[in-house]
Design goal:
Layout (H helix, E strand, L loop, with lengths): L13 H10 L2 E2 L3 H10 L2 E2 L12 H15 L6 E2 L3 E4 L3 H4 L5 E8 L5 E10 L7 E2 L3 E2 L1 E4 L2 E4 H6 L22
């Protein structure tokens, strides 16, 4: 948020992220997409865990400054800096309503610190969670598909999702 010279990463809830994604014709990534993004990233930065006041604004700002120090103004796709808020079939199968799925925070050897996890309620955010948006139109063999069509297809879904159930497409927003 801000200008090219004066900005900061801000942390938002999955529902706020979903509203933004909807307006920009995007969706939140799956666990597989998070892994694919990490593999494709030009800059793989190490995670920097913080332990005190995880949901405070000063901690979020401090973490942003650490990331920028590691990035060293390098341009291009970066990964490893945050856990992704993801869509996951586990959301529909979890008996706890209004939860969010998070995944990732890959170490420099490509292994995620955070396995797919649905234990946080949807309104919780902390310094370690990040939002990535993926354009919802996907071109496969010269034909355009909406991501929901891809996730519903028994063969094509494997391009986007590595879970048994890939039937959760978006977080509900009021």
């Amino acid at each position: 948020m801000g200008t090219h010279r004066d900005w900061a990463r801000v942390h938002i809830t999955p529902k706020a992220a979903q509203r933004i994604a909807d307006r920009l014709h995007c969706f939140l990534p799956t666990r597989k997409i998070s892994d694919d993004i990490y593999k494709a990233a030009k800059w793989k930065l190490p995670p920097v865990p913080m332990y005190a006041y995880r949901d405070s604004t000063p901690t979020m700002w401090h973490h942003h400054l650490i990331i920028e120090g590691l990035r060293k103004q390098r341009k291009g796709l970066i990964a490893g800096i945050k856990k992704d808020v993801v869509i996951s079939g586990r959301i529909l199968r979890d008996n706890r309503p209004d939860h969010v799925a998070i995944y990732g925070w890959h170490t420099t050897d490509g292994k995620p610190i955070q396995p797919l996890y649905t234990g946080h309620v949807f309104w919780y955010v902390d310094y370690s969670q990040g939002i990535r948006l993926v354009y919802r139109k996907i071109k496969i063999n010269g034909k355009w598909y909406d991501y929901t069509e891809v996730l519903k297809d028994p063969v094509l879904k494997n391009l986007l999702c590595d879970e048994e159930y890939c039937d959760f497409y978006r977080y509900a927003v009021e």
